[in-house]
Amino acid sequence: MINDTIDPIKYPLCKDIIERINNQFINNGWITLYDETYAYAVLINNDKLEKTRSYDGWELNMNYSHPTVNEFEDSVGSYYQYYEEGVVPIVTIQSKKSTYNKRIRLSDEFILFYDLRDVQNNDGIEYFIIDECGDGECVAKITPNQVVVQVKYIKEFIAIKEMSLLIQFETLKYSEKALNDNGYTRQNYQVYNTDEYVFGYSLMDGGGLTTNKSSAFIRGKVWIMPDKKNIKRLWNYQDNRKENFIIGVDENGDNIEITCDENQLPNLFTRKGEEPYTLTLVFFKKEVLSKYYDNPEKYSIYEGYMCAPEWWLRFDNDRADNYIVAVLVDLGKIPYKEQQHWKHYNVVAPSNASISETTKKRWFLGEPCDTSNAPDHLFKFQLKKTNDLWKSNFGWELFKPLAEKDQHHLESLHTMIERDNDKEFDGLIQSITKIIIDSLNEKEITNTTDSSNNNVISFLKSKDCSVPKDLKGGIAKFEAFLISLGQSNCDIIALFKDIQELRSTTVAHRKSSSPDKKQQELFARFELDKFSQQNAFNKILLRLIDNLKFLQYIAEKK
Question: Is 360 found in the same domain as 381?
Answer without folding.
Answer: no
